[in-house]
Amino acid sequence: MKQSVMSGQKGSSIRLAVDTAIFSVVDGMLKVLLVRIGSGPYEGKWALPGGLVLADESLDTAAERVLSEKAGVDDIYLEQLYTFGSVDRDVRGRSVSIAYFALVNSDRCLPATIEYYSDIAWYDTATLPKLAFDHAKVVEVGIERLRNKLGYSNIAYGLLPREFTLTELQTAYEIILGHELDKRNFRKKIQDIDLVKETGKIRKSGQSRPARLYSFTDRKPKIVDVL
Fold first, then answer.
1. Closest Cα partner for 96 from 64, 56, 59?
2. For residues 4 and 82, what is the distance between their CA atoms, to the nearest angstrom?
């Protein structure tokens, strides 16, 4: 399988890679999907799913392939994040990584990985293990981007199921932002901007009061003043 390289000075080469920070709200926490490296100088360390860009593919295609092959995740919200190129980011040689962040609803995601990785798991972003490469920085930048974009876009659709309650929607926002939102103001705002629509369905759960179910008016990225 061919791999692309960029030529450096004095005959050296720079490997071009993509790394993906996949975020989800799981068990009331913002979590990121990590894989445990199974061999080589980083054996036993946790990292973001990633890999080298092939000579015949675009960056976006490489990121989508990495998500599918190394995390078992397909057809989710994906956005290019930042370029990481510190000279010492990889002990195996000079490399530059184009990082992406992705959003997924964990209920429809069954992570699976390849043999090179010995494990795959969701980790609370507040209590991450020590990560390989500069992946801790990638997660940090990804969280910052996610928090900022929640305020001016509809990307929360990537985290919610097709149908949800307004309480579930607000809870997702609060978990990611790290603070509570006024219930009345939040609901008024998202309805004023036509972010969601009623499905006409009701969810009944035990002794709890029946709750109306909603869906996003648009499940494609768009700019909208949410917060």
1. 59
2. 19
Per-residue burial over 187-218, b if 16 or more Cβ lie within 10 Å, else e, is beebeeeebbeeeeeeeeeeeeeebebbbbee
pLDDT, tens digit (0-9, with 9 covering 90-100), for 82-94 = 999 999 999 989 9
- The sign of the dihedral angle between the CA atoms of 87, 137, 42, 34 is negative
The distance between the two most distant Cα atoms of the chain, rounded to a whole number of Å, is 72
Q: Write out pLDDT tens, residues 51-78.
A: 999 999 999 999 999 999 888 888 899 9
Q: Where are the alpha helices (DSSP H) in 26-78?
A: 59-71
- In whole angstroms, give the CA distance from residue 151 to residue 172: 13
Spell out the domains of the chain, with CATH numbers in brackets.
5-146 (3.90.79.10), 155-216 (1.10.10.10)
CA distances, 205 to each of 122, 164, 208, 209, 210 (Å): 27, 13, 6, 7, 7
CB atoms under 10 Å from CB of 3, counted, come to 12
| DSSP SS3 for 145 | helix
Predicted TM-score (pTM) of the model is 0.90
Residue with tokens 């675009």: 58
